[in-house]
Amino acid sequence: MKFIQVRGASENNLQGLSIDLPRNSLTVVTGVSGSGKSSLAFNTIYKEGHRRFLESLSAYARRFLGGIDRPAIDSIEGLSPSVSIEQRTIQRNPRSTVGTMTEIYDHLRLLYARLGIPHCPGCSRVIDSQSAEQVAAQLLASCEGARGLFCAPIVRERRGAFGAVFDKLKQDGYRRVIVDGELTALQEDPPALDPNVVHSIDVICDRLTVEVGRRPRIVEAIENCFQLAEDTFRFREDPDAPHPAGTERLFSGRFSCPDCQVDLPSLDTRIFSYNLPFGRCPRCKGTGKALQIDPSLLVTSRTRPLLRGGLSLFSDDGKPACPAFKPANVAGILKKLGVPADAAWSDLEGDDRRSLLYGQGQLPGLLDQLEEIRDADEGVFAELTAESTCRECRGERLGALPRAVKFSGATIGALCQLPIDELLVFFNTLQLDGLAAQIAPPLVSEISRRLSFLKEVGLGYLSLGRSAPSLAGGEVQRVRLAGQLGSALQGVIFVLDEPSIGLHSRDNRKLLGALEQLRDRGNTVIVVEHDQETIELADHVVDMGPGAGIEGGKIVAEGTAKEIMAVEASMTGAYLSGRKQVLRPQGRGPGWERSVKLKGVTHNNLADVDVEIPLERLVAVSGVSGSGKSSLISQVLHPALLRKSGVGKKPVGAHADIMGHEFIDKILSVDQTPIGKSTRSNPATYTKLFSLIRELFARLPEAQSRGYKSSRFSFNVDGGRCIECRGAGVKSVDMQFLAPVEVTCEACGGQRYNRETLEIRFKGKSISEVLDLTVGEALGIFSTVPRIDRTLKTLDRLGLSYLKLGQPSTTLSGGEGQRLKLANELQKKSTGRTLYLLDEPTTGLHFDDVRVLIDALDELVSNGNSVVVIEHNLEVIQAADYVIDLGPGGGSAGGEVVAAGTPEELSRDAQSYTGLALKARVDNVPPDLSDKHRPPSGKPPDPGPREIRIEGAALNNLKSVDVSIPHQKLTVLTGVSGSGKSSLAFGTLFAEGQRRYLDSLSTYARHFLGGHNSPPVERITGMAPAIAIDQKSGGGNSRSTVATMTEVHDHLRLLFAHIGQPHCPECGQELTWVTPSKLAEDLVKQNNESRLYILAPLVVDDTAEDALRRLISKLLKDGRTRILAGEDELRLDEGEDAALRRILNILRSCTDEEPLRLFLVVDRMVVSESVQSRMAASIEACYAMAEGVAATRLDGGRIVRHSREPSCGNGHFTFSGSLSPRMFSYSSYEGACPSCGGAGKEAKVIDDSLITEPSKPLKFAIAPPLRAYLETFRPSALVGLDAVERHLGLQPDYATGGLHSDVLRSLLHGLGDEKIPLALKMGQHEITWAGLASMLEGWLRGKDPNLKGQGIDSLFESRQCAACGGRRLRPESLAVRVANKGIHDLLALSIADAESFFRDLVFSGRKQEIAGDVLRELSNRLRFLADVGLGYLELNRSSNTLSGGEAQRIRLASQLGNRLTGAIYVLDEPTIGLHEWDTRSLLKSLQELKDAGNTVVVVEHDRHLIESADHLIDLGPGPGERGGEIVSSGTPSDVSTDKASLTGSYLRGDTQVFDGAERRHPSGDGIWLRGATLHNLDNLDVQFPHGVLTAITGVSGSGKSTLVMKILAEAVRAHLRRETEFDCVSAVEGLGSIRRLVTVGQKPVGRSRRSTPATYAGAWGHVRALYARMPLAMTRGYKAGRFSFNSSEGQCSSCEGQGACQVEMQFLSDIWVTCEECRGRRFNRATLEILFKGKNIAEVLDLEIRDACEFFANQPPIFRFLASMKDVGLGYLKLGQSSPSLSTGEAQRVKLAAELAGDSTEGTLYILDEPTTGLHFSEVRILLKILNRLVDGGGTVILIEHNMDLIKASDWVIDMGPGPGPQGGEVIYEGVPGGLRECPDSKTGKCLRP
Q: N or C: at which end does the chain have fewer Cβ atoms within 10 angstroms?
């Protein structure tokens, strides 16, 4: 698509806007502030593009990334994934730096944690690891004689609850731990820790006295600690020791300096974080700056003697200012320096001054002494302190230990101090070897990449340690832009929010170059901007307006800048063309008389500058970004003036002197800090206008008569605000993975206040109506109130007359927020000597807004005030009286005054960049708007690279592959299994595409999306965001269903939680409840003028006289005087005894059916509107007192109960709490049926299988595995069984089989509550008996881990849960309804029926507000599922019953629904499990993705898909090491003619899978299934002939897997177990000749690195046994287990038999490095000494299978397995190759080989489920030969298959259908393949026809 087509956009003030924005262009959206620019660019285009891409991620990830709601829009097409570079203020966190902002510091921390070399902070020697013996020696040397606790610090300063940790420790026998310093016994319940709080946990391993004689036990204790706590041990002095001194010391087995007795913790990223106590400097707390004694404040006089007024520490007569500090301290230092005691500061030389302050050698300095005193009392010398660079860490922010860790000779702090230019050189010239060469490359590469882009945007002068608050606005903006430039993405929409803010015109040109670079790469760049140069450069300009707020939201003009100029209605065009100009109304003033002078300013990069700032003038401070403007004005001038005026203690930047401060008596500053971003913040509250209005309302007569104070009119405090919404006017509904929904409060109708408050009016307006006024409307109403009028006029003067007083700050634009800040300061009364300091006040302002601003500033100056603005806006600079230009460059290249004078004078200075930019304006030179570099309006430019170019791809077996993939085409990658297809498509293309896009997200977001390394590739260009639709199974979780897979269930849970209506689970009646406000409103409407009692029910559990007396006393004490007892009203204040007697009299007349009911009278009143709020408050009080219950009585009538909680009118059920999504989840305890745990089924004991020897008593009659379990783990159950047998009178030798059924039932299923005597040694007891079978079921439900592996699974069967009837949820959850349907009713619908239901479902009012997005999302998801042919699936269908094709299409449907453009979709063999008829539908879906402007890349072997591709890439020529090359590429016809391409030979027909060999004819006999019934099969009869190759085919979902895998295979298994009854069939015939069953299904091979082809195929066990028989092994007593890399005996202890060690890389993908100890051989040295034919066990694992066949030729058990794998074409695999590295086709053949390596095929039934999965034509040909060999050997082979070549080659075909799901389940055809072509109902037949 060439355009982004927006239709009906209505976000914020957009008025149904429709527009077409050209793609691959630079579009500027401009217009006056508040006209709707950000609403269009960010709230509509960016938000929807970002939302659609996030929809491609998992629901789990989206839950943590936050919900993004759909914008208010009719439609939007042509949308690509979007990235925002938003306008943000400078980060004010003192710990934020350039390094943290760019995340480079995160990479540095990881680099130092993994490869840093620790040094001793004291002596600088390299610290090495030490043994437990060495640690014990240190402990004896330092703590001998101390009794202490030997602790293992297993958790150090980490968040979490650690319940599993406590359970494991308890299980391992540990008894005590120290949690956060508190000793805790584990025998008790483990402590419940707050998971959001940082905790430390030490395990106490031993307690003993440190003595030489106990050295062995000390060493053992330390070793135990090392094992538990990663080589760390803490010694704590025993708190129970006689005289504990609190000694505590941490030892490390890894890093310790024996000379300095310093122990470092193990290196991890936390110790390099200055946000954590672990790593940060203790003095500055990681900020790099500390509040410490300021030397400039210490010296008060340079000429007076230091001890007599020269230092502020002493008065003129020598008395110390603080008793804690003595003159002798200073005198002592002076004496050692050889300086007279009466010396003055001016008498000291430079070295002596430094020595006096900072010390010399062992001589402590004055500052250190003073800081020691301050450490004891922070209040001392407070007047001498200022914030400055921390003297302890020298600004590096880290503690001593992390500062002593080096990498390549440099500490992390030193690297962070280097300029980025130098740091980039450091990393580019880094030499890596050894372990560093394996671990560091991805880190170093990423660090270098990020540094290079910072340099590219002109920030090479910054350092990573530079504090973010010290950055200029332009620097911050470019830091963010650099990250996006680094992504090198194509096809993305970049949306930028005024990127020119804070940029000098020189820097702006660099920015514009970066934007052009983004566009020319093939991206769409949309910029919200007011900058003239940016507008003139744009390809397309959209001017919005005509006004702001409700007067805007329309498109005034669009086109090029030149075309915009010609539109009369365009305000932007008027300024661009010169029809309007920004001019200063008063003109420039004459010279000045007064000024402020700064001398010798050296703060930050300012180079000892002297500056004169004229007063009573408009002064502009300009200069390139980073030149020192903010440093000069905000960090030196402002705080210096404040300090001179005696207010504020803000630190003052370094300077020599300031003069002229006496001419200023007031300073007002407007900086870049944002206004409030809470919905409760608004223009009225921000400007303090609302406080004045509230005070006005409180002075009104009606308010005073009611006693209302100003707080009554606040919506932030109780009293006057609505109690339901707490003054917000809306209620927020949390929608989990969707954005929260705000709905208007029903109680107040959005007015925020209660009825009584709204009755107070000023000039006819309530307080709520006042908040709804615009500034312009309010001016007319409050014109007679001077203080309010002045603020409103200021807002009006700044062009904000259209703003509503109560408009939430969150809806204000950047320009509106900036002007609101200005108004807040300008409304304050000026003195005529006020200095206004403004930091970039034009931020977010349009040309016309700038004109208004200059008018306001000019008015201030004309009144005698002074205005200083830091500004880059040339209109403001040109309007200034005086300009101070700093530079010439940024950072160290700046800090000088380049020029100063009038704008005209500046424009003539060739050294000034500002002057050069001003020159064209001063000389009135018109802009160059030639179109020579710009395409015609509406015609997008070249879309950038037209292909993805990959160069040097080297992942896995790829051999530096260079390949091109065309954009917006369907490309298929094919080739033999293992040739490198997935490595190229997924490991390279997808991995890099997704990594680049995800880099635009926050670190927090990426944490939940997993690490993404750059793949090993030299270069990739033309890359767009990538989305994978990879090959996954339907899901093995028993709780997973179609609804959960598609997230339909998640949306239903939201729907039911937020608009569901609870009903009674027993009677089905709707539950009712009422809020206080609603009840009060109803009472007023229906019972006006009635006498009302509001009552709180009193709970009376004890009706004894004493209890009733205590109740009465308590009520009287609480001030309560009336209660109702029954129908009688009692006055408690008339006497306690009288009230008690009356209650007792009433009590005597009560019965069990009608017990005593007492109600407290909370309030009495006559019902009217005037008391409605009082009624609501009283009802609220009742609810609080009586647990959500209140009662009312009208005119002495009956008492009516009301409930805040939903309740059944019949009293059956009260719903406590609130509906939540978890209530409708099978996986949450809140929703899952407690009986079955949400599975819908429960395991029940099969009584018959429980008893295996009926002639014996039950204890001995039960199955042996169960008996062993009871004897080992449940002996008490056997004791109970003996007692029950005696109780029932059974003889000791009774026969279980001869018992009466009732007796047997009692033994197995219990005796209920009946008590049974039990004699024990401790005495006589009574027990209840639940029954042996019932107890066993309970142990299984309780997940007793001891039941695993006991072999008792066969004792259970799965049955529908009796409690929930298979509906999985609790009764109260099932009783909630939406549109009169429960959630189970909806989940029982098919996708088609559900789509129809939700399409027609409409709500109104509040329900529609809440449910709108959910219903829309449900309808869309269901519609796309139906569109891909899945409408027949039921939503509650278990996912593990889905066919492969169904699961694949479910995932594809979700991507089709996102409707993205410009993305790369990578699919992994999407035809797996699909019939060719369904493949045609799939191909149509892929074409839709492509036609929408996406690039579709498919790894595939399917002929139909290959021939339909636009571009085909054939990899090979062979698998594994013989592959990884591009054999051929081009169109399918190009490849088919390429003689070098194996794929091509099959496409052109030279080679065929089936060569037309003669078929076998089935004999008359076979296996008959009669009456097969399961899923969509209904009473089906079908025959499978013996001795032939039979293919079962049919469209996806037609019932093939159900028939073969679920019914036939299970029947054969039952037959082989000699069972005679079969499930799901009425009869099975013809199984007599079957003696063995082999199934090869879709279950994946192992995905652990420990799994290999040898272990999976079963050969490895024989190899191990062979090595155990070697003479040396037998001599040493080695068993076969010794030769397993999974056994601790023989495996390498360092890598635990994996051959590689995992290096955790946190936000990057983990790295596996070759184990240094075993060098990748997996086994320890002793094991490797055992040889067979000269090879050790590791060398055997390294053999290729073809070589291993020769090596083990004389070992039949081994050879049989290896030959089988060689036969299926896997001879090139290595025996030890890890399973995760196998391709899909290789894994499939490994499974096949493992099953085919068995005994003789005679009498064997082979069932294979889609064996061609992942196989190339050539491999299918090999497979066919093997299958034919099996049949020829006497076997029967049945295939479930869609591959047409294999179907053609079969002897017999059974075709199922005719359709999927309910439309299938029938046998359409049985016979030879040739006849299938003629079957009219067979879709397979149609696909077989030429």
A: C
1883: left (phi over 0), alpha (psi -120 to 50) or beta: alpha
Residues paired with residue 1200 on neighbouring β-strands, in sequence order: 1192
* Rounded Cα distance, 1180 and 1189, in Å: 9
Distance of CA 1652 to the CA centre of its chain: 34
Q: Using an 8 Å Cβ cutoff, are 1722 and 1738 in contact? A: yes
pLDDT by residue (tens digit) across 50-75?
888 877 776 666 666 665 677 888 88
**Matching residue, tokens 């930028």:** 496
Q: What percent of the chain has pLDDT over 70?
A: 93
Residues 6+ apart with CB under 8 A from 1370: 1223, 1230, 1231, 1232, 1233, 1234, 1364
| Widest CA span in the chain | 127
Q: In the prediction, which pLDDT does 938 show?
A: 43
Secondary structure (3-state) at 1871: strand
Please tell me the distance from the alpha carbon of residue 1684 to that of residue 1650, in angstroms, as a whole number. 10
Is the CB of residue 753 less than 8 Å from the CB of residue 720?
yes
Contact residues for 379 (Cβ-Cβ < 8 A; gap 6+)? none
Cβ neighbours of residue 40 closer than 8 Å, sequence gap 6 or more: 6, 9, 11, 14, 17, 19, 29, 542, 544
Among candidates 75, 31, 39, 81, which has minimal Cα distance to 56?
Answer: 81
CA pair distance 1627, 1620, nearest whole angstrom: 10
Phi and psi based region of residue 160 (left: phi greater than 0; alpha: psi -120 to 50; beta: remaining):
left
Cis peptide before 1517 (omega within 30 of 0): yes
Summarize pLDDT for 825-880 with one digit per residue, the tens.
Answer: 888 877 778 999 998 888 888 898 898 889 888 888 888 899 999 998 899 999 99
Give, in degrees to the nearest 5, the angle at Cα 1684 between 1682 and 1688.
65
- Two structure tokens written together for 791: 């603020």
Tally Cβ neighbours within 10 Å of residue 1333. 21
- Beta-strand pair 1356-1360/1241-1245: antiparallel
Helix (H) or strand (E) holding 1098: strand 1091-1098
| Strand-by-strand arrangement of the 882-887 sheet | 666-670, 834-839, 866-870, 618-623, 882-887, 896-901
User: Pairing between strand 1464-1468 and 1026-1029?
Assistant: parallel
Q: Check if the beta carbon of residue 511 is closer than 8 Å to that of residue 503.
A: yes
Q: Which residues pair with 1192 in a beta bridge?
A: 1094, 1200
Q: How many whole angstroms from its chain centre is CA 540?
A: 36
Query: Among residues 235, 210, 265, which one has the least CA distance to residue 152?
Result: 235
Where does 211-365 have alpha helices with state H?
215-228, 295-298, 327-337, 350-358
Three-state secondary-structure class, residue 1806: strand
Tokens 């079955």, located at residue: 1236
| CA–CA gap between residue 484 and residue 102 (Å, rounded) | 11
Half-sphere exposure of 1593 (CA within 13 A, CB side): 33
Q: Work out the number of other CB atoms within 10 angstroms of the CB of residue 388.
A: 18
- The answer to whether the Cα torsion of 430, 431, 435, 441 is positive or negative is positive
- The total of other beta-carbon atoms located within 10 Å of residue 252's CB is 22
d(C-alpha 866, C-alpha 1560), whole Å:
104
Q: How many CA atoms lie within 13 A of 375 on its CB side?
A: 9
Q: Which residues contact 553 (CB under 8 A, 6 or more apart)?
A: 12, 13, 14, 15, 17, 35, 36, 39, 544
pLDDT tens for residues 1722-1758? 888 889 999 999 999 999 999 999 999 999 999 988 8
d(C-alpha 70, C-alpha 1454), whole Å:
16
Tokens of 1318: 């039990």
DSSP secondary structure string for all residues of 383-418: GGEEEEE-TTTTT--B-HHHHTEEETTEEHHHHHHS
